[in-house]
Write a structure and sequence with these properties.
single chain
Length: 125
């Protein structure tokens, strides 16, 4: 975790601002950062992703997650780049931060599923 945060932080005082989501799920979301990319099929994409993660094997690694994202974006005919920003916001609450897939690997499958569920409810409200 510190290695991921270190890539983004210039000062140690920034560690909490950049990485607090590792310890506390987001209480708010940077919705302005994802409004342009929140198209009609995006919520369905994330619901399908959540289901796929629930069925996923214990191999919850960044390469596995990358492969799963590629598979689902092809299935939904969505460019992978157009879901990464919303995905980051759903997981961290922020538009920017440490490498997303590695962050997800550290947070773990169950936590990511919870955050997707909570974030989708807030975004769809």
């Amino acid at each position: 975790m510190c290695g991921l945060i270190k890539e983004k932080a210039h000062f140690t005082s920034e560690f909490w601002d950049i990485g607090s989501f590792f310890f506390v799920p987001p209480a708010s979301y940077d919705t302005a950062a994802i409004q342009k990319k929140w198209k009609d099929n995006v919520p369905a994409f994330f619901e399908a992703l959540k289901e796929a993660l629930q069925k996923a094997t214990p191999d919850f690694t960044a390469p596995f997650l990358n492969s799963l994202l590629k598979e689902l974006t092809l299935k939904f005919n969505i460019p992978q780049g157009s879901v990464m920003q919303p995905f980051r916001v759903l997981v961290t609450g922020m538009a920017a931060g440490p490498a997303l897939l590695e962050t997800m690997e550290l947070l773990g499958r169950d936590e990511i599923i919870k955050r997707l569920d909570t974030g989708l409810k807030k975004m769809n409200a």
